[in-house]
Amino acid sequence: MSSTTLSVALVQHRDAGSVDANLDATATAVAEAAAKGSQLVVLAELHTGPYFCQTEDLATFDTAEAVPGPSCERLATIARENGVVLVGSLFERRAPGLYHNTAVVFERDGRLLGTYRKMHIPDDPGYYEKYYFTPGDTGFVPIDTSVGRLGVLVCWDQWYPEAARIMALSGAEVLIYPTAIGWDPQDTAQEQQRQQEAWITVQRGHAVANNLPVIACNRTGHEPDPSGQSSGATFWGTSFVAGPQGEMLARAGEAEPEILVARLDRARTEAVRRQWPFLRDRRIDAYAPILNRYIDPD
Predict the structure, then answer these.
(1) Distance CA 85, CA 72 (A)
(2) 158-202 pLDDT, tens per residue?
(3) How, if at all, do strands 148-152 and 233-236 pair?
């Protein structure tokens, strides 16, 4: 990164009902973000349609696309027309029977610079992602762009410090998480608050532990369960940008689509790492046990 600031925009997304409608909404939002001076625009997880993982349905696989493919072409055009680096998120059909939850990164001129296939795949009530997504095989490798080296991860990766750390050790200059996370409407208000605060706190912890800015862009709005077996999911929005000491730089509301704009000081990472040299003090000679699934007691 250069010594100037970086203007970023997060498009907090609500499903518009179809791929074309969602991409049209994306085009409008990115144009607005670019008009505000944004150089990097981040979209939410699986933003071309509903969050379909509430149920297990074979027909849903028909909605997956090749990467690159039609949605990539549209996102490339959006990036090029607005002169921004654009981070999107798609349901990738890699081969018959092989599908991924894949982030895509486009340069200002529309070139597809790289992809990241979601590594950690959840399987919980309302989030049946293991049915649809093969765990990623791209590793935790930053993607170089004209606005810097981006450590792009996806949603459930947010809970794993190992993913953030490896991106930081590989030279990422910012951590980015396209996200689809929400409440079960039947949870108590207290449980909903605990979950949301945990989500914010763990990612601010990644910012602190790695001295890096964190961008988390979430969906918003209620989406019914297509099977009718549950009350659906209410995505909690609250997209945010944190600085390299975990400081909250910008935060969106919960219930509405929003274009959240923030400025990152490119020199802050260097300054904070001089003050808090966590990478210097890592005891890499003592970390081998981390490769165990679990350390059983003697």
Answers:
(1) 13
(2) 999 999 999 999 999 999 999 999 999 889 999 999 999 999 999
(3) unpaired
CA 115 to each of CA 54, 80, 203, 271: distance values in angstroms, whole numbers, following the listed order: 25, 18, 22, 30
Structure-block tokens of residue 122: 């959840």
CB 111, CB 73: distance < 8 Å: no
Q: At what angle do helices 161-169 and 189-210 cross, to 10 degrees?
A: 20
Q: Are 114 and 85 in contact (CB under 8 A)?
A: no
- Active-site annotation holds for 130: no
Please tell me the distance from the alpha carbon of residue 117 to that of residue 136, in angstroms, as a whole number: 4
Sequence-ordered alpha helix ranges (H) in the chain: 19-35, 70-82, 161-169, 189-210, 268-275
Catalytic member of 53, 72, 155, 217: 155
Q: 53, 92, 118, 129: which one is catalytic? A: 118
Per the annotation, the verdict on 72 as an active-site residue is: no
Q: How far apart are CA 213 and CA 266, in angstroms?
A: 9
pLDDT 10s digits, 33-46: 999 999 999 999 99
